Amino acid sequence: MALSPKGRRGYAAGALALIAALTLSACGSGDSGSSSGTTSASASSAGDAGVKLVQPGKLTVCTNIPYEPFQFKDDSGKIVGFDVDIVDLAAKKLGVTQNIVDIDFAVIKSGAAMAAGKCDVAAAGMTITPERQKNIDFSDPYFDATQALLAKKGTGAKSLEDVKAKNLKLGAQASTTGLDYVKKNGFNPTEYADSAKELLALQAGQADVIVQDLPVVLTWLKKPEIAEKFELVASLDTGEQYGIGLKKGADPVLLKTINEEIAKAKQDGTYEKIYVKWFGKKPGELG
């Protein structure tokens, strides 16, 4: 999600504490996420590829749902989305299946989830930032992202400046680049744990305006009950790019496979098909 450029502290001092916290949360009530399958910290090989995986025959992927259209549960309860389809390309190349773990985003962006063997990779609409790169290795960029402001109709706001001038209540998703962006512009927004809670706050009147990734906002506005009362008031060109996250010092074969499959998909038209499937437009046309 436009993940925060910034939720990364120095790896050395914080890594052990983060891993310990993750281990405890995975064992008790502190874990806010759920998994589509159990994982194991012991490594195994994925067939002839020789890739080290935390669970035999599976590429275990950490994400944070809901974050439609990147990853969310469909009507049957299956986790689907743009990120899911992108990661599936690498999973199929490795001859394994994708196993998705729903976990708190802060644990993902800190690198703790992968350092503790919770997952092999992270695909959570996560922006590549220098701060995150201290704790996570990233694939080549696979999505160009930007932020947007969604507001209840009638506010008259058309920009962040208007939000400030009109003294409107601003909300943002915690641990995201959207949050970081508005903070850098002098705002102190109310933070919400995930995108669903952020939208709910807007609907309940707890916030007048929220900042969120543009594709997420556009997906929300496809729903009549949202479009009837709320509107996109501004796009914020933040120049972000998403990447697939991997453990620091990632398995070179796994990283190479992911990068090759992203490049191949862009060359043979597969990427465009996936893009149109989830966004209804071709790359470069969104927004």
From TrEMBL:
Looking at the UniProt record for this protein, which Gene Ontology cellular component terms does it annotate, in alphabetical order? cell envelope; membrane
**InterPro entries in UniProt:** Iontro_rcpt_C, SBP_3_CS, Solute-binding_3/MltF_N
Identify the domain of life: Bacteria
Where's it mainly located?
Answer: other
Provide the alphabetized UniProt keywords: Signal
Alphabetically, the GO molecular function entries are: ligand-gated monoatomic ion channel activity
The positions making up the signal sequence are 1-26
By its UniProt entry, which SUPFAM superfamilies does this protein fall under?
Answer: Periplasmic binding protein-like II
Q: Where is the protein found, in the record's own terms?
A: Cell envelope
Q: Could you tell me which PANTHER family the record lists for this protein?
A: ARGININE-BINDING EXTRACELLULAR PROTEIN ARTP (PTHR35936:SF17), MEMBRANE-BOUND LYTIC MUREIN TRANSGLYCOSYLASE F (PTHR35936)
What family name appears in the similarity comment?
Answer: Belongs to the bacterial solute-binding protein 3 family.
Q: What is this protein called?
A: Transporter substrate-binding domain-containing protein
